[in-house]
């Protein structure tokens, strides 16, 4: 017997219509490429999103056609989020930090029809436009008077001139909620990048679950700063959750340095911010040098890579900001777990709370997870056993776009490539990427643990641990370190710092100092490039 409830499709257009009706005065603040601060409201974004939809219709684009963006976080990008997906097309966010040849490959593979870009990236567009075989229209996200006369890109038009003649009245189409809404290519797979193709249903459910109190706890009382780029898994879904809850949105544009981020947090009374550890490291460095304090920031979600304990301690103990340690991946839309405390943790000691906060947290509703051994047998949730982490849920990938790589699933579960433990309370902790874990003498060493200890040293700005071949022990850990400006620490001093903080056999065999650790397009350390840099390195005594 079926229930007798109304059947209504879960569509992204409903988010901006809801925000328009119930939170029309809600602010959207953007630092633009031009350097100024732009202010508008959800009503403005809703109106202009409808103009975008009309403009796409005028181009005679088909349902499901891909519309690419190469843009920073800002109000125009937000309008495309809703105008493109709401009209039945697919929003494809390109990562400008990739090599131009990779951008060309991805744009051609996805068969993008239109590319909307910020003027910052005009040099990239000039270099690639004639190699993108399917793109018929290029739109610069700027005013008409900012469009260069000699761009060299045939038919280039400004965003404002593109939408200006369009009506702001538009009847959002109703279609199957399982239709594709947006796509994002991941570089975390082997071979060429593969695309996760999100649906309207998966996006709405992800926005709903991630906004819950035990997840990101978003509300109309929040001022939200997504430092995580809108080209990185749709800014972790924050634009959708913000429209759903009516939260104020503050976009940093291209200014991602520590001072600019801190100033925006203070001037716009930001209560909640989101970003990867490398961004917060720059901001905390700026604050420490200038002896600054937050006046409104209450919490920050940190993901993308493991958050060092020293960073959690700095936010929590020095600045009074709660850190929500989170984990996910492109194939998960991306949120999978958030580390929020339970009632039982309210009375435990600060050190015990820190032990919990270092974990990537509990699964949010909708995500199931398990850990398995090499044979696929499920391991216990005791906080000690560690194995390959598998997940499933309504916003977890079923297959990649165009079936690239075949089915990634194992008996209906998606293998994340992470090695983890799960404790009795359901708190998951990543111990390593399966390709980065170090096996020494038959025992596993977590590169994350080695990195976290190094990061706790006051002279260390960044640390990466990799395994190096050893004739007796198979592999031994080496920690690669970038020192803070003006700070000094020797190899022997740093190795001595490990004493008492980990088992002796887990202490690195060596320290290698370098000027910069290579980072990928999303701010994660690229250990493959680091290994290539150290290909001629030989362990001491070998």
List keywords for this structure.
single chain, 542 residues, alpha/beta, Rossmann fold, GMP Synthetase, Chain A, domain 3, 3 domains, 9-stranded mixed sheet, 7-stranded mixed sheet, 25 strands
Question: In words, what does this structure look like?
Answer:
This protein is α/β, with parallel strands linked by helices. The protein folds into three domains: 10-26 and 41-172 and 180-203, Rossmann fold (3-Layer(aba) Sandwich); 256-435, Rossmann fold (3-Layer(aba) Sandwich); 438-533, GMP Synthetase, Chain A, domain 3 (2-Layer Sandwich), CATH 3.30.300. Helices cover 28% and strands 24% of the residues. It has 16 helices and 25 strands. The strands form five sheets. The chain has a nine-stranded mixed beta sheet with strand order 2-1-11-10-12-13-14-15-16, with helices on both faces. Strands 7-6-5-3-4-8-9 form a seven-stranded mixed beta sheet, with helices on both faces. A hairpin with a 3-residue loop joins strand 23 and strand 24. The longest helix is centred in the first third of the chain and has 17 residues, at 42-58. The relative contact order is 0.09.
List strands and helices in order, with pairings.
Layout (H helix, E strand, L loop, with lengths): L12 H10 L4 E5 L5 E5 H17 L7 E5 L4 H12 L3 E4 L6 H11 L1 E6 L4 H7 L8 E4 L16 E2 H5 L16 E7 L7 E6 H11 L12 E4 L6 H4 L1 H8 L2 E4 L6 H10 L4 E4 L1 H14 L8 E4 L6 H10 L3 E7 L6 E4 L11 H8 L4 E2 L4 E5 L13 E7 L21 E9 L5 E6 L4 E3 L2 E3 L1 H9 L4 E11 L3 E10 L7 H7 L12 E4 L13 H7 L9
Parallel strand pairs: 1-11, 3-4, 3-5, 4-8, 5-6, 6-7, 10-11, 10-12, 12-13, 13-14, 24-25
Antiparallel strand pairs: 1-2, 8-9, 14-15, 15-16, 17-18, 18-19, 19-20, 21-22, 23-24
Helix pairs in contact: 1-2, 1-3, 1-9, 2-3, 7-9, 10-11
